[in-house]
Model the fold of this input.
Amino acid sequence: MPAAQARAVLPAGTTRLVPEAPERVAQRLRALAVWARRFSPLVQTDGDDGLWLDITGCAHLFGGEDAMATLVIEGLAALGISARAAIADTRGCAWALARFGNSPTRVVPPGEQRDALAPLPVAALGLDTKLQTALSELAIDRIEHLLDIPRKVLPSRFGASVLLALDSAMGHAMEVLDPVRPVAPCRAERMFDGYTTSTEAIELATRELLDGLATQLLERGRGARRVVLELVRYELASLRLSISLAAPSNDPKHLWTLLRPKLERAHLGFGVEGIRVTAPRDALLGHEQAQHWRAGQAADDKRARLLIDVLSSRLGETNVRGAVPSESHLPERAFVWTRPMHPKPQRQHATSVTRPTVLLEPPVPTTAIALTPDGPVHRIRWKGQDLAVVACRGPERIAGEWWRGPGSTRDYFRVRCEGGVCLWVARSRENGSWYVHGWWA
Done:
């Protein structure tokens, strides 16, 4: 339905428009195929909303085919995805039952494809719309009607595609699966001839491994977003130390700066037998121009990212946050706090309206005197003092979003008081109350 109709039908505040991005859908479906490799090593994407799994020899590991289908559905539901699953000897039969069957899960016993497909519509064979229309005009609505027609008549009357679809569903055609092959993460390791407790040797080996890891990332044109250092300890479980980065990086010196404090506090036990360094998460590394008239801004951004990485490594990822602009005119909703280690929200907008450097949450109630009911502010009380207003600009009316329900409407004034104090003052349109919402430091 049209977007406006959907917003009118659904409750206020429950809809969000997302632009269509076919390339992003394909990327996420491929990521879902990698996730499905826990059930089978052979997984292929099907269109933009399906997956093929070749589970030959795998079902007994999950308690049988029925239990395996249930596990797949439950696993996808945990990811917020509703799905249907079908298991059959042929791809055509499984595809038809998963998309046109009556139950969310269906397992067809061997050799019973014909009985399972017979009541389904001819669209379950994956035929094009034009051919389906032609069959419907001849009252051929279900697959059983096609199966009753002599085989040698089908190609001459409806084309070879109908016969090929039937053969694929019945198991008479060759089926080739092109599985998704995930790229192994960059990794470097070194095993010692024996265990060692020398911190100098461990640090030296770690730095050499980081150099090798950075070389692999550089060859792929990518940077690490997360690095895991694994210490293989003698007669103890391996110790894993991880760091996250605000921006992808393949600089071994920067990676060592983040890993070194964790390595210095690591418990080596009786000794370390080997070291592994892995980058389980990486991202494309943007090309940077060395000299440019805005090179100073690029250098400042890079230094800011390095500082965020160091602070997150020392203080913890959850203790470092940054303010990101949000799509709202209300001051208290004009930004959201986000962790620098996670991608920023995509819905951002820049505003040219002047806002105070310090925003009070919640606003501080105050008293003010205006020359007229809707006029400029004459005097205001701030921090126990009655201050005369030297300059006043406004009002700027800001109303709440109608789709969030009833909200207050406020008139904002930018005032400069005696002594040089600059305040951002708001007056409620509903009850006439005055508030100080911020000031310019």
Summary: The chain has twelve helices and 17 strands. Residues 345-350 have pLDDT under 50 and may be disordered. The first helix runs from residue 3 to 9.
